[in-house]
Amino acid sequence: MPALPRPASGPGSRYTARAALTRPRPTPARHRPDPAALTRSLTDRDLWITAMVHEHRVLTTPQIARIAFTSQRSAQRRLRVLHHHAVLDSFRPLTQHGSAPEHYTLGPTGASVIAAHAACEPTALGWRPTTTGRIAYSPSLGHDIGVNELLTHLAAPTPNATHGHLTLWLSERSCARRWDDMIRPDAYAHWHDPTTTNADSPVLLSFFLEYDTGSQPLPRVEAKLAGYAAFTTSTNT
Predict the structure, then answer these.
(1) What are the distances in angstroms from CA 210 to CA 66, 100, 143, 146, 148?
(2) The CATH fold of domain 15-140
(3) What is the tens place of the pLDDT at every residue in 79-97?
């Protein structure tokens, strides 16, 4: 299979899509488990991770470890279990230098679990059996990982309660459902900062994220700024 086009620099330049390999599951797990059979196995944290992977499409092992575990080793152990039960799918793209971490996407069982919580069918979530392949070969993979890398650092819990943290993080897809007629940011988030002079009034910073490493033409960036200006005027925010 010929290599897919890859930018020479910027988001996605490190990834070679044609070499993205999915991790095989042991034979007993190839048949999708009944989600009801996993009710005694999936923890609240497992369900939260599954929901986060669904919301943000693809998260790497270090990113998941950063926001949900105390160490990468414990994250790897639990993620292997979730992969075994098809709650999550995974792949590792070939990079130009070194090796990429495991990339996790929503698996068939995970899609069934999320759909059950939403009282709908997995297809209503936008999930298909080909979802992992589409993400693995997407030219925007590097960009998506870059967005999630930045925001998982902001979302990571800290031992010091006085440090700021994210209280809300919406993906590009969720932003599109809300504001696609005016703007389409890469993410929207709330940053909560308790370190203010008035302890009763902590700072809450709401922001849109546009992630770019200089690969976009300047006119396209300028057009986005005009869209945000129009959004601010029309919504009085």
Answers:
(1) 22, 24, 11, 11, 12
(2) Arc Repressor Mutant, subunit A (1.10.10)
(3) 999 999 999 999 999 888 8
